[in-house]
Automatic annotation (TrEMBL):
Catalytic activity entry: glycine + O2 + H2O = glyoxylate + H2O2 + NH4(+)
Lineage of origin: Bacteria, Bacillati, Actinomycetota, Actinomycetes, Streptosporangiales
Name listed for the protein in its UniProt record: glycine oxidase
EC number(s) recorded for this UniProt protein: 1.4.3.19
MF annotations from Gene Ontology: glycine oxidase activity
Length: 373
């Protein structure tokens, strides 16, 4: 089985590794591997914290992926000898005022109605868990099974693992889909080269629908949703675990790494393909973070970046065969692509290789967006 994967972010890379392990001859096409949202993401592995009513299938997918993470990382690190910064020290969500606390209470009740344990903490208990929190923090919620990973280390390890298993990396832009006899037969590159394939996977984030030759309506419209993040550094222990805060209704999070990096994010802006970092975006992040953790102003500034989350019309992933035989979609992972990497890689590799597909994949087929004729 010859497979071409367009896009080497976490989803394309994870799938390439898994499909190669399953025996396929895989070619990855990307002019700049791991340069999209996967290079900007904070790497929270928190399926529950962004839960909203009606997103239960996405929650199940997220929990399935979180449960696979330990084994996925262990295999990846053993194969490559590279560390990924994987941590399972939980997620603390805290509320700044009483309205924020009411929201966390609602979230806890919703979680409990789904059978997911959530531990409510008083303000004092929050500060015991995270001593740098501001004295005014009203209360919180602890999700002990959540964690985080460093997405840049993860993509470096996935690139190495894919190479180990013989995946060919072509550093060019895919320009068009080659269609023969009503089926996808390969990909045309921007230098005119054609890579023939039995199956093609589009995993190019919000650019997944950009290729020439795609019949209209085949790939659901995936929009870019901009997110700005700030990377800070500390030489002394500052945060023990990923901490999310609601500050007067506005959400902010901080993800600490063992090497002293702290990722502070993130804005969410519907501005098309705009990756400019703005003063307003950074100000909002720093303002809210300082309310929760006043000591943040002492940390060293390292980097600011903006990335584009791939958002589908219902904000859930789009994974599976499209209406064009031989062409598969693997995009739309929006705010959760890093969390969803292990399960998505397994699902997409199984689909590409005609293997047994995990049941949790059911609700995420591209066919849900097909317009009836
Ligand atoms: P991308 O990583 O965007 O990769 C797409 C790749 O396609 C790129 O490398 C690009 O070069 C390539 N490409 C584009 N066009 C072409 C072409 N024509 N030919 C070949 N290649 C092409 N998720 C979490 O789970 N936890 C988090 O904490 C988290 N935080 C985030 C914070 C921010 C600020 C942002 C922006 C995202 C965050 N996410 C998080 C979401 C996560 O980053 C995405 O869901 C995930 O990275 C999507 O991966 P992808 O492989 O689909 O796309």
């Amino acid at each position: 089985m010859e497979i071409v994967i367009v896009g080497a972010g976490v989803i394309g890379l994870g799938t390439a590794w898994r499909a190669a392990a399953g025996g396929a001859a895989v070619t990855l096409v990307d002019p700049s591997p791991a340069s999209g949202a996967s290079a900007v993401a904070a790497g929270m592995l928190t399926p529950v914290s962004e839960l909203t009513y009606g997103e239960e299938p996405l929650l199940r997918l997220g929990l399935a992926s979180r449960d696979r993470y330990g084994a996925f990382v262990a295999e990846l690190e053993e194969l490559t000898g590279l560390e990924t910064g994987y941590r399972t020290d939980g997620l603390l969500q805290v509320a700044f005022d009483s309205d924020d606390l009411r929201y966390l209470d609602d979230l806890r009740r919703f979680q409990e109605s789904l059978g997911i344990p959530a531990e409510a903490l008083t303000g004092r208990e929050c500060r015991r868990a995270e001593p740098m929190l501001a004295p005014g923090v009203r209360g919180g919620l602890l999700a002990p099974e959540d964690g985080s990973i460093d997405p840049r280390r993860l993509t470096a390890a996935l690139l190495a693992a894919a190479a180990r298993l013989g995946v060919r990396l072509v550093r060019r832009k895919a320009a068009r889909i080659v269609v023969e006899g009503g089926a996808a037969a390969g990909v045309g590159l921007d230098d005119g080269t054609v890579l023939r394939a039995d199956r093609v996977l589009l995993a190019a984030g919000p650019w997944s629908g950009d290729l020439d030759g795609l019949p209209p309506g085949i790939v659901p419209p995936v929009r870019p949703v901009k997110g700005q993040v700030i990377r800070l550094r500390t030489r002394v222990p500052f945060l023990r675990r990923t901490t999310r805060g609601l500050v007067r209704g506005s959400s902010v999070y901080l993800v600490p790494r063992a090497d002293g990096e702290i990722v502070l994010g993130a804005t969410q802006e519907e501005l098309g393909f705009d990756t400019r970092v703005t003063a307003g975006g950074l100000w909002e992040l720093l303002r809210d973070a300082r309310e929760l953790l006043p000591g943040i102003t002492e940390l060293e500034f390292a980097e600011v970046t903006a990335g584009l989350r791939p958002g589908s019309p219902d904000n859930a992933p789009v994974m599976g065969p499209t209406g064009l035989p031989g062409l598969f979609a693997g995009t739309g992972h929006f705010r959760n692509g890093v969390l969803l990497t292990p399960v998505s890689a397994d699902i997409l590799a199984a689909m590409l290789l005609d293997g047994p597909v995990p049941e949790v994949a059911g609700p995420f087929a591209p066919a849900r967006f097909e317009v009836p004729a």
